[in-house]
Each structure stands twice: as structure tokens, then as C-alpha cells.
Amino acid sequence: MCRIDGPFFNRGKYRLRVVDRETKRTKSYTYASQEEADRAKPKLEAEYRRSVGLSLSKALAEYAT
């Protein structure tokens, strides 16, 4: 599952930060206004939602054995 932080005001734009809780990787998305960032947040949550079950790396490791 991913966590989405923000929007944060940074250098004249608004930023959303997506943090993958499993791998600790982050990715940032920038928007011109806070309204755009607020509208994009539910879309990003849906995009980064993981299905329940095994992760791909674990499934491949089990398949290999």
C-alpha cells in the first residue's frame, strides 16, 4: 500500500508525494494550484492501490521453488 502526502507548497507549485510503504520509494507529482493537487489525490490513491495477496516478487520466488 502507498501513502500519499500533501499537497505541499514548494517553489510556487503544489506537490504530492507518494511513498511506497513496502519499498520506501518516493515519487513526487507537481501541480500548478492546490485545487489541481486536491483533485489528483483520489486518482493517485486509486492508481497506487494494491490488491490483497502476495506481492509479485514473493509470488515469483515461490514459483521458482
SSE diagram, text form:
Elements: E1 2-10, E2 13-20, E3 26-31, H1 34-47, H2 56-64
Antiparallel strand pairs: 1-2, 2-3
Give an overview of the whole structure.
The protein is α+β, with helices and mostly antiparallel strands and 65 residues long. The protein is built from 2 helices and 3 strands; from the N terminus they run βββαα. The chain has a 3-stranded antiparallel beta sheet, covered by helices on one side. β1 (2-10) and β2 form a beta hairpin. The relative contact order is 0.21.
Q: Which regions are unreliable across 5 or more consecutive residues at pLDDT < 50?
A: none
**Count of helices?**
2
Report the biggest beta sheet as strand number plus sense, adding barrel if it closes: 3 strands, antiparallel
Sequence of strands across the biggest β-sheet? 1-2-3
Q: Please, how many domains?
A: 1
Secondary structure class reads: alpha+beta
Overview in brief:
This protein has two helices and three strands; from the N terminus they run E-E-E-H-H. It has a three-stranded antiparallel beta sheet, with helices on one face. The protein has one domain (2-64).
What are its keywords?
alpha+beta, 65 residues, 3 strands, 3-stranded antiparallel beta sheet, elongated
